[in-house]
Amino acid sequence: MAVIKAVLIDLDDTLIRTNTAAFFSAYLKALGAYMSSVEAPEIVGKNVRIAYDEAVDAYDPTRPLYLRFLERVAARLQYPRAVEDLRRLFESFHSWEYPTLRPLVRRRRETPQFMRWLFDRGYQVVVATNPAVAESATLMRMAWGGVPADEFPFAWITTPETMHFGKPHPEYFEEILLNIGVNADEAIMVGDDWDQDIVGAVTCGMHAYWVTNRGGRPSGGMPVSGYGTYRELIARVTGGWLEQLAPTQATGRALIHRLRAFPAHLSTLQATYGDNMLERTSSATGRSARDIICMLRDEEGVDDCSVQHFGQRVDDAHSRAPGNWQDELQEYPQTPARQALAEFVRRRTATTDWLLQRPESTWLRSTAATDSETQDLSQVVELWVDRDRARLRQIWDSLACVQRGAVKY
């Protein structure tokens, strides 16, 4: 049986009632009116929507989604001042005009009790909403819907300030899992939008429950764990359904999304702890988080992206013990954490771009990953994902030691 540790739940028309399409249409109309000094209201609304879609579709694991969105809004509207000024304009709108949309949000009476049931049993609960509006707006909507963030200990709330990816991209779900430290087969996604909430989650190897009030059935052969009304979900979960789920697994090309999301979590750690913390050496491990990022960068070498060489890189990364890094550890302190991360992201992007271009036949073709065994590319990528997890645990351990004051210098 699967061991479910985390429940990711969509906000609009799942945890709360909003009529998503009508709500965000009203949102764009109000925003356009508020920014009418910049451009005609209908042009503002249209370009804000397009700018968000462009920001979500562009792969960039180093900068938060909100910053990229604002840059694109500024470019599309030919905003004459700095992006930071545009941010303040959006903040002003969310403070003064956004609250007028409150009548469009309704509570689900069963949600607060359901949330408490999940928390009482130790589940991590994530508000997995599409990060299309600022954090302040999301928190207001949650409060209006009866699930205020200051009353419920949510493990994560997806906002454009804290996320690098958005729905429906599988990287969005992978980033959440990295941020809460849970594997895909240990989590379930609950949502009402088949394309936005379900497809990407299942692609990652997560369990999924599709909330549908219209008697709809899953399409396209997508293996969802369940579907039905929101109340039926609650009855199932409180009746022990989560403990009965069969294991899931993402393999092959689906794992590329996990590799692509990994740098975003490192960027989040950098934003959370700062370069100084990342560069301080733990007395317990003799390494800093920056040193481990440098290891990741060096293991990611992409001079030769043949299938055979990719397998050899994985084997080298897994077989190299920490003690074998002494020469490099002498050099790593000369590299700022920010530079090390940027270099790793560049190499990881090249790796995943190469993998995305591989034909299906390549994924089933055996490649000599080591001298003693033969593996197909799918198995090699699984090992690469495992390597990421191992290095991430080392980073977490190093940061934990530094936070406790166990530093070498």
SSE layout:
Layout: E1 6-9, H1 20-34, H2 41-57, H3 65-77, H4 83-96, H5 111-120, E2 124-127, H6 135-144, E3 156-157, H7 170-180, E4 187-191, H8 194-203, E5 207-211, E6 226-228, H9 230-238, H10 255-279, H11 289-299, H12 307-319, H13 326-331, H14 337-356, H15 360-364, E7 366-367, E8 375-376, H16 377-403
Parallel strand pairs: 1-2, 1-4, 2-3, 4-5, 5-6
Antiparallel strand pairs: 7-8
Please explain how this structure is put together:
- The structure is a single chain.
- Mean pLDDT is 89; it is low at 368-372.
- The chain has three domains: 6-15 and 105-239, Rossmann fold (3-Layer(aba) Sandwich), CATH 3.40.50.1000; 20-103; 252-403, Up-down Bundle (Four Helix Bundle (Hemerythrin (Met), subunit A)).
- The chain contains 16 helices and eight strands.
- 40% of the residues are buried.
- The strands form two sheets. A six-stranded parallel beta sheet has the order 3-2-1-4-5-6, sandwiched between helices. Strands 7-8 form a two-stranded antiparallel sheet.
- It is globular and about 60 Å long.
- It has 409 residues and is of the alpha/beta class.
